[in-house]
Design goal:
By secondary structure, the protein is of the alpha+beta class. It is built from 3 helices and 5 strands; from the N terminus they run H-E-E-E-H-E-E-H.
Length: 121
């Protein structure tokens, strides 16, 4: 199975020439993906305890937060692998499980949409 966290970082580096930023000393593995000019986030990579997401267990799971159009957030959350945004506005942001439930291509499309929705450079 592909490591989707690595694939996400590689996709963003190749397409937008953006490297992850690690802004929190308390969470050194949490990575913000930001626009070059404005420094606004368009994605956030985290490893969150499953129970914090409403899932069973306490072990960590890699997730990606992305901004989405409000009209698709609700329908995506009905599908496996999508959850209400963790620590973000739940109307405009979505959490995607990086456990290979959601296909890589679909994740990349969501990242690209989020990049444009947050005001690309």
């Amino acid at each position: 199975m592909p490591n989707l966290k690595v694939a996400v970082v590689k996709h963003v580096k190749n397409k937008y020439q953006i490297a992850p930023d690690y802004p929190w000393s308390k969470y050194p593995d949490y990575a913000a993906l930001r626009h070059h000019g404005t420094k606004k986030w368009f994605a956030l990579l985290m490893n969150v305890p499953r129970n914090k997401l409403g899932l069973e267990g306490t072990d960590g799971i890699d997730v990606l937060n992305v901004k989405c159009r409000p009209e698709i957030v609700g329908s995506l959350r009905l599908a496996q692998g999508y959850l209400p945004a963790y620590h973000m506005n739940k109307e405009h942001w979505l959490t995607v499980l990086l456990d290979n439930t959601v296909p890589e291509k679909e994740i990349f499309e969501l990242i690209d949409d989020s990049y444009y929705l947050t005001g690309h450079d």
